[in-house]
Amino acid sequence: MLEINNLHVKLEDEDKVILRGVDLKIGPGEVHAIMGPNGSGKSTLSYVLSGRDGYEVTAGSATLDGQELLEMEPEARAAAGLFLAFQYPVEIPGVGNMTFLRTAVNAQRKARGEEELSAGDFLKLVREKAKALKIDAEMLKRPVNVGFSGGEKKRNEILQMAMLEPRMCILDETDSGLDVDAMKLVSDGVNALRSAGRSFLVITHYQRLLDHIKPDVVHIMAAGRIVKTGGPELALEVETNGYADILNEVG
Ligand code: ADP
Ligand code: MG
Ligand code: MG
After folding, report:
1. What is the pLDDT of residues 188-241, one digit of tens each?
2. Does 245 score more than 90 pLDDT?
3. What whole-number distance in Å separates Cα of residue 41 and Cα of residue 22?
């Protein structure tokens, strides 16, 4: 599904190198977690995959089902089935949440060669998915993320994901700012989407999210590289001992 080889990335306007040879392979239906100290490049990896401006790829590749993502426009990446739930969801004043979702869903359907959803079908679907995430009707009418609490923004990201049904989902610290109940809602929302053909990359600081969303593989990222890969026990090791032991071990 997603294959990243030797990815090197620097800031476009500065001589700052952020990613220094990331290798990662995620198969269909797999859930991978990336943990790592602040500033290790986790968000940068997700931004570069989704096509955000400001970064320059100096080496390496990232393919989704064999298609080179790094050469595609952000919209084309989304159409190909890539979705990123942001660590800091953007506010879009003046654009209603519902309108935004409907436009995104229909653009996605068009890209897949499917018919647009009728207004009625769309409404039914969005209400059902919003209800599961305890997002009320009023939040659907407000401009995207404007005045939403941190937790509401994160739930809204998961609503977008549930509506778009992407094949490769990247969640960047979706658990940060969530209380225990909201974390359960978000995790249930993610788990409901798990399927044989859909993969997840879950970036998190905390093992507790991985109690709810059980990963197949856990990676530790440090200084722009994946320095260690293991099973769920690796997340427990981090929770107990922090990163110091692992970082010492890998030099
Ligand atoms: P993480 O998500 O693992 O905490 P980031 O990918 O956010 O790490 O950041 C990695 C490093 O790159 C940090 O030192 C960060 O300050 C720097 N960085 C990332 N994006 C930018 C940017 N647009 N401008 C300046 N520095 C950046
Ligand atoms: Mg960070
Ligand atoms: Mg980050």
Report:
1. 989 999 999 999 999 998 888 999 999 999 999 999 999 999 999 999 999 898
2. no
3. 10
Alpha helices, DSSP H only, in the chain?
42-50, 74-79, 97-111, 119-132, 137-141, 150-164, 180-193, 207-212, 233-241, 244-250
Report whether pLDDT(87) > 90.
no
> Ligand 1: which of 15, 16, 175 to mutate, most ligand atoms within 8 Å of CB?
16
pTM score:
0.93
Instruction: Domain ranges for the chain, please list them.
Output: 2-95+166-186+195-250
Identify the residue whose tokens are 């879009």: 92
Does ligand 1 come within 6 angstroms of the Cβ of 43? yes
**Class assignment of domain 2-95+166-186+195-250?**
alpha beta
Probe residue for ligand 1, chosen from 43, 45, 203, 243 as the CB with the greatest number of ligand atoms within 8 Å: 43
Does the Cβ of 199 fall within 6 Å of ligand 1? Answer: no
Predicted complex ipTM: 0.95
